[in-house]
Amino acid sequence: MPSTAPRKPALATLLLIVLPVILFLLSFLLGRYPVAPLTVIKVIAARFLPITPDWPPVVSSVVLDVRLPRVIAAMVVGGGLAIAGASYQGVFRNPLVSPFTLGVSAGAGFGAAVAILLFGERYATQACAFVFGLLAVALCFTMNRFFRLNSTIALVLGGVIVGSLFTALLSLLKYVADPNSKLPVIEFWLLGSLSSVSTADLVPVLVVTIPSAILLLALRWRLNVLAMGDEQARIMGVEVGRLRLVLILLSTLIAASAVSISGIIGWVGLVIPHFARIIVGPDFRRLLPATLSLGACYLLIIDDLARTVTSAEVPLGILTALIGAPVFMLLLGRGKLGWA
Asked: CB within 8 A of 264, min separation 6: which ones?
């Protein structure tokens, strides 16, 4: 693996730690209901310390019930998609792979559409999106084993096939959905949004995402070994097949959890790992934490823009595509897509 190192690692590390904290606090100040910075700090601190409230009850509701779950959701989804993307790129040794390569987005979109048509209930939508996202990846592995292909390229191609299948099934569901009630809900979910996220929605996502991300970070040095190639990894005593399966499972759990709460938000898991690689280099021991931080900051900024720039909230999937596509093209034109 190339040993490109950042010129100022200490400064980059400090920035990647401080920036999410600053953006986290600033995001509470944005919105149609103005709240003073000191009041935000006191409202949050009052949850843990014996502070007598000197603010109206509506301020507590805005900060704790509306903005806090949304800010946390944006950081969890952005960081989760980004670290899953970096992990996938390392596992497949391909800088063009994203969390949705194995059909996670198509499967989750189909599952969400099924739940909207049959149940019309938010928690069912979240659960079905998560289950079908995992099912899509399971089908890819089943296909790989059934045809005895046993290669990463076959897995990627299996993802294309499974993704196309679920996309076709999703189109069929949209065709039969009621155009006045169900179809707009399906379309809005597919565009991606965090506008209605509540604390209750966050709990199952955090339960899955945090342990998976911790395990992924604990295994990040093994991604360096995988990136050297299967043969070299086996020489170094690594059980390649088992390690690859574990890394894909953890990444898929994170990606499916993120999609289940936010809808389809593309480009984050594809573009952010390349930015992190430019800042901290290709070593996955530094790359994964940096990707996690940058992804959280990026989607938080995007969500802040979505809820403040216009009176009608712009879906997150549209904004990430409008920004991600030209940025990715710029990186491609400057030769910044790779492992160095």
From this structure: 100, 105, 108, 109, 190, 191, 192, 317
CA distance 55 to 213: 37
Q: For the chain, which residues score pLDDT lower than 70?
A: 1-8, 149-150, 336-340
CA distance 195 to 316: 10
What percent of the chain shows pLDDT beyond 70?
Answer: 95
> Identity (one letter) of the amino acid at 18?
V
Give the orientation angle of helix 122-146 with respect to helix 199-218, to 10 degrees.
30
In angstroms, the CA 135 to CA 336 distance is 33
Q: Which residues of 287-326 are buried (b: 16+ CB within 10 A; e: fewer)?
A: bbbbbbbbbbbbbbbbbbebbeeeeeebbbbebbbebbee
Question: Which amino acid, residue 333?
Answer: G
pLDDT value of position 104? 87
The model carries a pTM of 0.90
CA angle 249/206/106 to nearest 5° reads 50
